[in-house]
Structure to design on (268 residues):
């Protein structure tokens, strides 16, 4: 139902008549009615708009109820609405990116949560791969703007099994990964399936070693916020850019409990 998002659904003023007609068909029950906030934030001067949407929704529900039709599931609140407006509730809500542990509105004041805010934890704590190959090379795309060039002396590089097709942002070439708890600079432009890193300062690195794309290793850490800034992404694009073929390992506490390979789930 459209209450002011300006997207999908029948206009709220038309919904009661439509639902009344639908409810007359044998074998059909209207179990849910859904809409979506256009705005939710701490700014009280903008509270009029979500209030207007809420009033449109509840007015529609009242009219539907007057026809003797009860709809058990009703939803308007989205992620920011669920955080900012605990007083606006129906029988359901869409937690959205909150499930991933991310809030689209600022939930902290310094080190402390704002009153009533959930203490969200990131659902994705690490993103890892491995070194496929470690070798020395005397040429490649190591020149200015990643132009192909000869090298005066061999460069020790590592090839990581991760590229643009795995959700790695093209801006990664300006960043680094972690290997043996040290920063390994990404030294060429991104390719579809591989990432090339400079191992000059990590002589102990060998094929098969763990590579941290995001997360902690030793005393070093690469955060989601760092990657988003480096890649010029916002959170929904960051999460959804990682395709299904990238294996997911799910944990309860410190214990791995399931592995997802595409849509194939293996319980451990």
């Amino acid at each position: 139902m459209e209450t002011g998002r300006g997207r999908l659904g029948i206009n709220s003023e038309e919904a009661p008549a439509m639902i009344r007609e639908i409810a007359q068909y044998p074998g059909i029950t209207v179990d849910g009615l859904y809409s979506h906030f256009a705005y939710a934030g701490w700014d009280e001067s903008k509270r009029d708009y979500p209030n207007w949407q809420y009033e449109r929704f509840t007015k529609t529900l009242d009219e539907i109820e007057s026809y003797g039709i009860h709809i058990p599931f009703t939803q308007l609140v989205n992620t920011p609405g669920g955080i900012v407006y605990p007083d606006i509730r129906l029988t359901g809500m869409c937690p959205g990116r909150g499930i991933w542990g991310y809030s689209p509105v600022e939930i902290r004041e310094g080190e402390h949560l704002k009153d009533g805010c959930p203490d969200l934890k990131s659902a994705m704590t690490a993103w890892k791969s491995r070194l496929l190959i470690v070798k020395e090379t005397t040429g490649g795309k190591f020149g200015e703007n990643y132009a192909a060039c000869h090298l005066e002396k061999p460069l020790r590089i590592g090839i990581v099994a991760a590229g643009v097709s795995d959700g790695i942002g093209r801006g990664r070439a300006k960043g680094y990964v972690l290997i043996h708890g040290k920063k390994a600079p990404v030294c060429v432009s991104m390719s579809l399936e591989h990432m090339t890193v400079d191992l000059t300062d990590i002589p102990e690195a060998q094929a098969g070693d763990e590579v941290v794309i995001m997360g902690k290793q030793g005393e070093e850490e690469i955060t989601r916020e760092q990657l988003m800034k480096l890649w010029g992404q916002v959170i929904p694009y960051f999460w959804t850019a990682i395709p299904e073929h990238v294996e997911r390992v799910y944990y309860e506490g410190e214990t791995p409990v399931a592995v997802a390979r595409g849509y194939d789930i293996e319980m451990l």
Notes: The domain at 15-113 is CATH 3.20.20.10 (TIM Barrel). The longest strand covers residues 127-140. The mean pLDDT is 91. The two ends are 42 Å apart (CA to CA).
